[in-house]
């Protein structure tokens, strides 16, 4: 989801793009030798580490799977950067916080991860923090990537456009939607001269999944679609979910706060997800 916008956000930079998918420079962060070789050969000015196991429920059911990518894989990237004295950007998540309040978490708050996925990402944070030059960037409820968007926004937009007339969405958890393109543009501003450290980088504001679904419906101009607010108990899942609203206090202080989530969501839905209606 995030990687699909790297070319757009860094269009005027020389990029070495790698993935485990066909069509990219092959690289699996779980392979220490391959990671070291890739960094040594590329000799980059900075490494943007986006590789992650992000299926929250699979992480809960297969903790070793989460560990291999989010912890061990991150260790491999950090060691390669350390050897060559290269700065690193690590994308983390607001899920590292306990989620026991609706007020947004800031960079000053203490993480207390509530599930396997969040614990593995926080472990990655601690590994990255050992590097002298690093950016740890915590994002919120991610959306973007169109075909790669298998999370909430992509699912709701597809269901509405496929003709669903009644949907349910959780209204008892709060988060900060984060447009993957805005995230990368924010990261670009960071690496172009801001101090190293931990930054929260989510679109401004917070909402429930229910409020987000209403905004998607409005952007698609489908007022007849009924969206019913429900408790998170309605969707029992292997991994516990908690509120994870974020506030980018450090960016706000620099006048670099991100745009409101409703504006970013509307742009994404209209320009990337909306299916054109024929004559």
- Counting helices, strands and paired strands, the structural category is alpha/beta
Q: Share of helix among residues?
A: 25-40%
Average predicted local confidence, pLDDT:
94
Number of helices: 10
The CATH C-level class name: Alpha Beta
CATH superfamily: NAD(P)-binding Rossmann-like Domain
Name given to the CATH architecture: 3-Layer(aba) Sandwich
Structure summary, number of beta strands: 12
Rg result: 19 Å
**What sequence of helices (H) and strands (E) makes up the elements?**
HEEHEHHEHEEHEEEHEEHEHH
Number of domains: 1
Q: Please indicate the percent range of residues in DSSP E strands (runs of 2 or more).
A: 15-25%
Characterize the biggest β-sheet: 4 strands, parallel
Q: Are there runs of 5+ residues with pLDDT below 50, and where?
A: none
End-to-end separation in angstroms reads 32 Å
CATH topology description: Rossmann fold
| Strand adjacency order, main sheet | 3-4-5-10
Question: What is the approximate shape?
Answer: globular
